[in-house]
Specification:
Number of helices: 10
Strand content: under 5%
Distance between the termini: 41 Å
Order of helices and strands: HHHHHHHHHH
Shape: globular
Largest sheet: none
């Protein structure tokens, strides 16, 4: 694991949070226990960033606010670890979340199949498998997929999404375009491969 800077920094601005996300995401995924699947670790990291960025302001930290880049890394790590522990304790199953996300993307992964000859259980399982493989192979984070879904399917304005995820509106459009292109190019392929496993 990298040794991050010990230089004193102020409470992160939106742009700094974006930089920290880019810098910390993969090392955090690696640092978290491999006991958990990659998808669960990704959710934990996304949750940690969401909580520290969006649900706590500078005053809420008091004397315990991290003062350095290194301090923020470990704050995010312990927050993500807490998320995983809570998930295991309460038996939360990641598959349910993946299936819900896949359902929202069914017209990308499986156009023409909905309501057709496929058994509902096989169909749902194939969608979930397709989404899981797509995210892993194309390196699409939960955060970016949520941003894409919020913009394209829920029609939430870019300004609102940008404020929620502490990124610029331009970044929202970039993520929307990138994820959309990847789904358009690879979605059907992943569904066809998933069908063979689910059937």
């Amino acid at each position: 694991m990298k040794n991050y800077s010990s230089a004193i920094i102020d409470f992160p601005t939106r742009s700094v949070w974006g930089e920290l996300y880019s810098k910390f995401r993969k090392p955090l995924l690696t640092k978290l226990s491999s006991y958990y699947c990659l998808a669960d670790r990704e959710d934990a990291v996304e949750s940690a960033f969401d909580k520290l960025m969006n649900k706590k302001d500078k005053d809420a930290y008091g004397d315990k606010m991290p003062q350095t880049e290194n301090g923020w890394f470990w704050a995010l790590y312990w927050q993500a670890k807490s998320y995983l522990s809570h998930m295991r304790e309460h038996g939360v199953v990641h598959a349910k979340y993946v299936e819900e996300m896949a359902k929202e993307l069914e017209n990308v992964f499986a156009p023409g199949y909905f309501g057709g000859f496929l058994d509902n259980e096989v169909y749902s399982k194939a969608l979930a498998l397709a989404l899981g493989s797509f995210r892993k192979d194309q390196d699409v984070s939960c955060r970016n997929l949520k941003i894409y879904l919020s913009s394209v399917y829920k029609k939430i304005p870019a300004k609102v999404i940008a404020e929620k995820f502490k990124i610029s509106e331009d970044n929202v459009y970039v993520i929307k375009f990138r994820v959309g292109k990847l789904l358009e190019k690879h979605g059907k392929k992943y569904f066809q491969a998933a069908l063979k496993k689910a059937a």
